Every structure is written in C-alpha cells, then in structure tokens.
Amino acid sequence: MAVSNVQPTGIERTFGEDEIIISKTDSTGKLTYANNIFLDLAQYDEDEVLGQQHNLVRHPDMPRAVFKLLWDTIQAGEEIFAYVINMSKVGDHYWVFAHVTPSFDANGNISGFHSNRRVPEPGPLAKVKDLYKSLLAEEKRHTSPKDGMEASHKMLIDILTENDVTYDEFIFSL
What we know:
By secondary structure, the chain is of the alpha+beta class. It has one domain (21-173): PAS domain (Beta-Lactamase, 2-Layer Sandwich), CATH 3.30.450. Helices cover 39% and strands 22% of the residues. A 5-stranded antiparallel β-sheet has the order 2-1-5-4-3. Strand 3 and strand 4 form a beta hairpin. The radius of gyration is 16 Å and the shape is globular.
C-alpha cells in the first residue's frame, strides 16, 4: 500500500465503552487480524489492512518517542499499556487506551503482537495530551527526525526517572 497523503481532519471518531478494538500482527508489525470495531473506526475494509503495517493508522500527533518505547517493550517480550491517537483512512482521529502484548510460538520466540484497545478515561487522557504536546514539540525542534525522536525519548525517560516509575506505573498513576 502506498504512503498516504491524507491530512488530519480534526474530526474525532468515538466508540462505545463496551467495545474493544482488537488487532493482531506478525512479528514485523504487519496486520494479520482486525476486528470490525477496528475496521469501522479506521474506515478501512479488511482487505485494505491485512498484510499492511499497523502504522497504517498512525496519527502525526502521536509522538514517535512513545512508539519507540512501545516497540522496545513488546520486542523485549513484555506487555505495555499506552494512550494512542490513531488516524482513519480519511484523516479523522480516535483516541484509545491500548494494551499490547507479544505472542509466542511453541519455542518461546515472539511470533507476533496482540492489542486490545478501549475508550480512554477523560481525566488521564487530558494529562496524556499535554505530555504528548511536549514530546512532539521536542521532536519538532530537531531537523533530523531520528534526532528529534531520540531527544523526545530521552525527555520521556527523564520524566519517568524523576518520578521513579515505569511507563506503565506512570500511565496508571494519571
């Protein structure tokens, strides 16, 4: 699938508190399963997403540093919880509270990843939005995307270190 030139519309899509977005990927992040709630929110047909990288729904307002932390964590065989803003096929956005876990084969090797996403709580989400604005501002201060992501990641790690918490502990303390 070609790189999308879709721009954010500013329109927020929502889903019910009783609904769970579910997706699965292989070990490289290519989608192998997406439930109907995922497809409806993302405004894609199943055949448009299966086999594509999960970052197909990445929103430009999502700090790359958070995705680095997420990928580093799950590739190390650990689970992670994170607030994520995604973008639909037409540029609408939706916020989720994600729980991402690695899947393992019979030999204990990571064979893919499984993600359940729920509606985020408004109070913690407001705090996350402020944090993400700061991380994005740091990323944009640098001409190199890699340097920006690394500086933003350091900023995030410094916040966690100052509070003597892991990322999950930080997220659940909000």
